[in-house]
Every structure is written in structure tokens, then in C-alpha cells.
Amino acid sequence: MPHTSDVGYDWVCFTTDYGRADGFPAVCEGVIARTAPHARVLHVSHEVPRQDVRGGADLLVRSVPYLPRAVHLAVVDPGVGTARRPVAIVSPEGVLIGPDNGLLPAAAEVLGGAIAAYEITEFHLEPVSATFHGRDVFAPAAAQVANGVNPNALGPAVDLDTLIRLPEPVTHIEPGRVTTEVIGADSFGNVQLAVTDLVADPGTVVHAQVGDRSLEAVVGRTFADARSGDAVVLLDSAGRVAIAVNGGSAAEILLPRPGDRAVLLLAAAPAPPARS
């Protein structure tokens, strides 16, 4: 019998790049339901851009502070079927289950920091498909932990220092210029950047360039600080600088891809009027 703990989970929060067309999320949810019928599945997103590990990691970081105490099942897995490890990372506020490719550690930090990690070698469905570990490896492990199985029963301990971590995005801030990276774009067409400081006052004019495309924007606090159809640079709900178009899509103009270089050129703020 698996070693159980006195701590189970009522929720499995589920994030993937699977999309909805092929039924993959439903199959994984079915595996969870067969093993842990009490656990409710909260679908965070299945629209992470295909194989975009950084985008998935960023989505988790933005989401987990607002989710219930849970098993966080996340699968964005370009290396499925290779030697990359399936892992469970234990944090004070939940257990994260998914591939060891950089997807999970930043979210573990948000949940209080990684306490322990285990390679998932037990509870697989058999036979294990080389291309669908979400169904055959990760969902069964998530269900067992939701049932109260101690994560240390999933497999051997993993040295936390060996977990794959994504490199930090490169950002340089200098007078009048910010150079950073694109994290992604949301379904509204807002382009999210790695930088978290606007370094400019509201009303400052910005020339925003991503790759070989650009637009003119104004620094603002809300979308409405730009006229309808015009662009605004603001801090979004995740605390990152974003390029948006009021009533439109900055992504359709800039065609950003995750990791693209982004440059914000800031116009000099107007001088205050002279006192008479």
C-alpha cells in the first residue's frame, strides 16, 4: 500500500499547452477522477503557446497566489519521452507536478519555496506512452497526492540544486532606453515584457520596438490613458510592463514571439513651465 500522509488536497489546478480540440485535458481529468474522485479540477489554462516553457512558467507564477491550496499539475513538455525527469516539487502551500524543464521552480518559490523534490517513478499507467506523459505519468501522480499519498512515495528524492531553472530574462535600463525581452502576449493582444519598472512618468511618449516592428505609445496607468486605437505602455495586473492598444491589439502590430528583444525609447519629459 502507498504511504499516505494526513494531508490530501481537494483541488488539482491544471495547466497545459494542450488546447481543447483533441480532448487531452479531459483524458487527464478522467485519470484524476478515477483515482481521486473527491478532487475538483480547476483548469487554469490549456492555451499556453505550444512548447513555450517560459510562457507556462510565467503563467504559473502569475496564477498560483490566487489559487486554492492544491496539487498544481502543469504540463508544457517539449522533451516528453526523452531523459528529462518527471518531478514533484513540495512547497509549504502545495505540490507541483510536471516535467523538470524549468516550468515549476519559480511557482514553487511563490508558494513559499521548494522544501523537497522527487522523481516520479511510481504510479504510472501502463504502458507509458512516449508522447503523453500528462495522462500516463503526471495525472496519476497528481491524483495520488490529492488522495493523501506522501510525495516521497512517488520516487527517489531529487537534489533541489539539480532542478532545471530557466535563465533570467535580460533587461538593461539606461537613461531614455529600456532593453528587455518579450514574455508573451495575452488573448487581448497585450504584449507582456520582462521588465517590471516603467522608469517614466505618465504622459511620456515611448517608441516601442519588438524585432523589426514598432509603434508609438504613451506611458499610462490604464488602457484609457491612450485614445481609442492608440498604444499605451503600462504596468499590467501581474506587475510587468506591457504594451497595449486601447480597443485594439498590440500583438497584431508587433507580432511578438517569446524571447524577442524589445526596446522602449523614452522621449524626454517636457520641462516644467518657468515661474514668472
Automatic annotation (TrEMBL):
Keywords assigned = S-adenosyl-L-methionine
Provide the leader sequence positions.
none
* One Pfam family cited in the UniProt record for this chain: SAM_HAT_C
Q: Which residues form the S-adenosyl-l-methionine hydroxide adenosyltransferase C-terminal domain?
A: 181-261
Magnesium among the record's keywords? no
Q: Which residue ranges does the record assign to the S-adenosyl-l-methionine hydroxide adenosyltransferase N-terminal domain? A: 12-155
Judging by the UniProt lineage, the source's domain of life is: Bacteria
Entry-linked InterPro entries: SAM_HAT_C (IPR046470), SAM_HAT_N (IPR046469), SAM_OH_AdoTrfase (IPR002747), SAM_OH_AdoTrfase_C_sf (IPR023227), SAM_OH_AdoTrfase_N_sf (IPR023228)
Name the family the entry cites: Belongs to the SAM hydrolase / SAM-dependent halogenase family.
Q: What is this protein called?
A: SAM-dependent chlorinase/fluorinase
